[in-house]
Amino acid sequence: MRSLYLFLLSAFCSAQKIPRLKFTLKDAPVLSFENGEKSTVLFHDAGSEQLYVGGRGALRILTYKESEVNQTQVPLWADEKAEKNCRNKPGAVQAECDNYIRVIQRLNSSSIIVCGTNAGSPKCWFLSNDTTLQQDKRGQALAISGESLAPASPSQPAAAIAVEGSLYAALSRDRSTIQRSYGPRKLLRTEDKWVAKAEFVTAALVPGKESHLDEIYFFYNEVNETAGLDEEPVKARLGRVCKVDEGGKSLLVDFWTTFLQARLVCGSPTHPQRFNQLHDAVVLGEGRRGQGTLYGIFASAWGTTAVCAYSMDKVTHAFKTSRLKGYTNVLPAHRPGTCVPYSSPSAPSKAVLSIIKDHPEIETVIYPEGQRPLYVLQTNDTYTKVVADRVLDASNTSRTVLYLGTDKGKIHKVLETGGQTIIIAELSPFRRDAPISGMALDAFTGHLYVATEFEVTRLPLADCGQYRETCWKCVLAKDPYCGWDPDGKKCSAISRESNDTASNFLQSLDPEAEDVCEGAAEQVAQEALKKVRVDPTSYIYLPCPLRSHHAIYTWVKDGSVQYPCAMDGHSCTLRFGENAPMGQGLFKCTATEDGYLEEITAYKLTLNAACVPQLSVTVAAGALFLVVTILLL
Questions:
Q1: 407-441 pLDDT, tens per residue?
Q2: Which of 425, 319, 429 is nearest to 18 (CA)?
Q3: Where are the domains of the chain?
Q4: pLDDT tens digits, one per residue of 72-92
Q5: What number does CATH give the domain 526-630?
Q6: CB hemisphere CA count around 436 (13 angstroms)
Q7: Among 12, 67, 550, 584, which residue's Cβ finds the most Cβ atoms within 10 Å?
Q8: pLDDT at 498
Q9: In degrees rounded to 5, what are phi and psi of residue 422?
Q10: Whose CA is closest to 539, among 621, 631, 622, 618?
Q11: Measured in whole angstroms, how far is the alpha carbon of residue 351 from the centre of its chain?
């Protein structure tokens, strides 16, 4: 009995790392790209109904109105000369001799910068009024060189972020650079030796407690091309600079004076299993400046992906207190990398700058909260993209929801609370399986934008109708956006604003929470009993559809005898055989989850020489048995 309990407990714990529910979203407003896009970049302003999609030779502006989407295309072709030069290069990849939009960022309220590869000679344009290209005095589209703003190839990893009118770009070329490459502030970059063979992933603004303490973080992988068999070929890193950095006065004049970097590990310092390659990252604020959580997707050498969470308080503390790698002397009181205005009396001295010039890496390794991943994905999928949201539940408690895109075009909706995770659902909105290449979340309008190279769509963050019209199915979903409305007797969206209207809503988000539905499970209408008559020599399967992949399913005959079932991904099927002899009786399939018991289906099996008309009977050629498929009444 103890071994059975341990088995069920192990199965339940493992189930928490797979999606609880799986939905195919047929009503999502999906827009398809006719020929596919090699590089799909998304940009969305919070509160707007527009989505900017960068592709090949054009910028698409999508406007969403309820379930409809309208598209406007802004053609941005590669220059004829640049395209010709690209095609004439020895060994040129002809498909890359086009203009792939790789950067879309808002500079200010009236201007958006758009940069493309331009057949190997990057170029940037400007949108005014959010839809039209700015023009020069001759009436032509205003353009500038994008050499330091965008990658030259659609396959080159890069990251960009606009902060207060300045564009910060990280480019993975022969010489990897992190730079402030456009805007009113002084243009700065990293020294060549600071960042070697980097593949940049993304960038984020981390606000400080005061404006002059704002930091810009870059996340990237450092490639070790000379790694041996026992060495890690890739190491994840994060680098940061201060927004107020204006370069040095006599040393590092055109370079960052605040750049520091650290190694980022998804795993434990004492456990050999680590996830070293960063796929994507997002920083989610806590609602006040100076705090937040970093969520990252990491992959192992075998392709398995994991999600790790890091306290930004601890990250910033490490940059403020850690020793510098390779520097053995005592650090000065004014530490290298401190954020201070250029004109401040405490601006770094030449001696301080000489330290950071030669020692830009901190010794402290950044490990995740709990020194372990939040979870390791236990399916054949791998994660490619992540965005996050902070939402108030029915009790006005702040909850974190992660949306993770997979390499097969699916989205996992994940509740993260207290270091524990539940994959609420797996959403399948697309017609074609392709890696999720872009995601944007709008907490103001309550929408998630998702793109692959073939399709783009918008999904509601609160899709409470998926959880059916019963209290316990709504509650078991553990979706903080949704709660059971006892007055309206339906699963409804909870207001994002703190108020009293949702106080009556029923939710149960924490592990081992009490039954809040007050016996509503007994009120669920059971499916009609299916009566089955078969020949004693027949071999039949009794299907039990999986309602939740986190539930424990059981077949019971006549209320007492348990029968095993075979899990096949969609059903917990009862197969009669030597260990489960077929006999007359009432067979019920039940599902148990978090203390709730649901009867999924029931069959009254009678042995007879004739089969009832409701059965579809197939005789297997050369076999001595019948396969009986039960048709639902």
A1: 999 999 999 987 789 999 999 999 999 999 999 99
A2: 425
A3: 39-153, 526-630
A4: 999 999 999 999 999 998 877
A5: 2.60.40.10
A6: 28
A7: 550
A8: 54
A9: -135, 125
A10: 618
A11: 43
